Amino acid sequence: MTATTYTNRQWIYARQPTGRVGADHYTLRETPIDDRLAEGEVLLGARYLSVDPYMRVQQHTRRTYDAPHPLGIVQQGGAVSQVLASSSAALRPGDWVLGYNGWQTHDKCHASQLHKLDPAAAPVTSALGVLGMPGRTAWFGLMEAGRPRPGDTLVVSGAAGAVGSLVAQFGKRAGCRVIGIAGGPAKCAWLTGRLGLDGAVDYKAFASTEALAAEVARQSGGVDIYFDNVGGAVSDAVIPLIKLRARIVVCGTISQYEGGIDAPELAPRVLQHLLFQRATAQGILARDFVHRMDELRTVVAPWVRSGEVFLDETVVEGFERLPHALNMLFEGANTGKLLVKVA
Ligand SMILES: NC(=O)c1ccc[n+]([C@@H]2O[C@H](COP(=O)([O-])OP(=O)(O)OC[C@H]3O[C@@H](n4cnc5c(N)ncnc54)[C@H](OP(=O)(O)O)[C@@H]3O)[C@@H](O)[C@H]2O)c1
To answer: What is the CA(185)–ligand 1 centre distance, in A?
Structure first.
C-alpha cells in the first residue's frame, strides 16, 4: 500500500528572547510526514494547541522548575488532536486525544503517550483547560495549599485567566468570599457578573502600590487566602493585608516572566508579614498532581457538565499566529483559557 504524505508545519524555538517574544525567536518549518507507522504508533492531526505562561518561563537561561527549553526543536506544549492513522488497537482514525505534541500540525507517537478523549462527555478543549493542566493547578493548589473554609476571604490575582477564574469559582463553591484582581474594567465586570464574585479590583487603575492596597483592603477587609498568579506589584499590595494564619498560594509570577526571572527585580520584604500573622506561603506545581487526575475528573467533570463550573476560552484562529498568541498572555488579551485553533 502506498503511504499518504502530509506537510507538517512546525514552530521551531530558534532564539532566546530577552523581553517580548517576536517573529525572530521562532522559525516556521515545513517537513513531510507520512502515515507509515510502527506497531502501536498513531499519526495525529493537531486541532487545538495550548499557549501557556510556563513556555515563557522555560525561555530563561536560569533553571527554574524546568531546564531551559532547548533551541532548535519544536516548541513543546499541550495539544488536542485527531487520529489520522493508527496501528494501535487502542485508537482509531477520528478519535480525539490529548498529548504533549508541541506546536506542530502533525505528529507520530506511541498511543501510550496519549490520553483518549470522549467528545460526548465534555468539549475536547476542556482537556487543555478545566479538565487539564489549568484545572489541576486551580483545584489542587486551592484545596491543598489554600485550604479554604466557609467564610474565608479569598483574593485571587490573575482572576480573569484560566487558572484564576477556576480558583475563584472553586473558592465560591467552598463558601469563601472571593475578590478577584484583574486588568481593566471589562475583566472586572466579567468577574462580578459572569463569575459572580463578591468584588473585583482593576490593578491597572492604581498609580501606586499603596493605592492598590487600599482598594484591596476596602473590598476584602483582610485576606485569609491569597492565590497568586502574577507576583510583582500586585502581590506587594496584597501580602501586607493577610490575616492571622493566612495561606499564600504561590502559583505564578507572570509579571516577572519577560526577563525578570533571570534578573529578579527588588521588592518589599514580606517575611515579617508571615511571622506577624503566623501565615504560610506555599509554591505549587501542576505536575505534582498528575497522578491525581482521576480525582479532578471525578469531582470537577460533573460540575462542568451541569454548567456550575465553566472556563471561558479565547480562541485564536490559525497555526501561523502561535508566537503572537504567546504574547497575548502578557498583554492580558485573553479571558479564560487561551487556545490556538489549527485551521
Ligand atoms: N504552578 C503551576 O503549576 C502553574 C500552572 C499553570 C499556570 N501557572 C501560572 O498561573 C498564572 C496564570 O496562568 P494561566 O495559564 O491561567 O494564564 P492566564 O491567567 O489565562 O493568562 C495570563 C494573564 O496574566 C495577566 N498578566 C499578564 N501580565 C501581567 C502583569 N504584569 N501583572 C499582572 N497580571 C498580568 C493577564 O491578565 P490581566 O488582563 O488581568 O493583566 C493575562 O491575561 C501564570 O503565572 C502561570 O505561570 C502555574
So the answer is: 17
328 lines ligand 1 (CB under 6 A): no
Q: Is the CB of 187 under 6 A from ligand 1?
A: yes
Beta pairing partners, 73: 13
Q: Specify the ligand 1 atom closest to the Cα of 251.
A: 1
- Identify the residue whose C-alpha is closest to ligand 1 atom 32: 255
Q: CATH 3.90.180.10 residue ranges in the chain?
A: 5-129+311-341
272-285 per-position pLDDT tens digit: 999 999 999 999 99
Within 8 A by CB and 6+ apart from 125, the residues are 48, 80, 313, 337, 339
CATH superfamily of 133-287: NAD(P)-binding Rossmann-like Domain (3.40.50.720)
**pLDDT digits 0-9 by tens, 15-48:** 999 889 988 899 999 999 999 999 999 999 999 9
User: In the chain, where does the domain assigned CATH 3.40.50.720 lie?
Assistant: 133-287
Q: Name the closest-CA residue to atom 36, ligand 1.
A: 332
* CATH no. for 5-129+311-341: 3.90.180.10
The rounded distance, in Å, linking the Cα atoms of 158 and 332 is: 9
Q: How far apart are CA 340 and CA 164, in angstroms?
A: 20
Ligand 1 neighbour 53 (Cβ under 6 A): yes
Q: What is the pLDDT of residues 230-244, one digit of tens each?
A: 999 999 999 999 999
